[in-house]
Every structure is written in structure tokens, then in C-alpha cells.
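Explain this one:

_____
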Amino acid sequence: MRKTVETLQKEKLKQVQLLATYYQLSDGLPAGKKRDQVIRDILACKHKIKKINEKLTALNTSTED
């Protein structure tokens, strides 16, 4: 159980770092296909982080019972 939480937290950290990188990239890009792709990547990272948070919450809730 603890191993699962650690793995999820590591994955979340990777996604947050990737998200920060995408945000930095998006600032310098003019409108176009590349910027659109970066925005899609940002949304994908946010979605992954949300799913990881849901899993972590579920795991924390189940250990409190």
C-alpha cells in the first residue's frame, strides 16, 4: 500500500514538472499548431494529475476506515 502511494506521488511530481515546462513553452510560442499542441499537452498533464489525486484520495480514505 505504501509503495503504491509513493509510486503515485513520484508520478504526480513528474507530471507537475512536465506541466511547468509546458507552461514555459507556451509563453514564447506564437499562435499556431505548435502552441495548440502544447496547450493539449498542458490539458493532458492536468487530467493525469487530477486522476492521480483521485487515486491518492481513495487510498487515503480507505486507510482511514
Summary: The mean pLDDT is 92. Residues 1 and 41 are 30 Å apart (CA to CA).
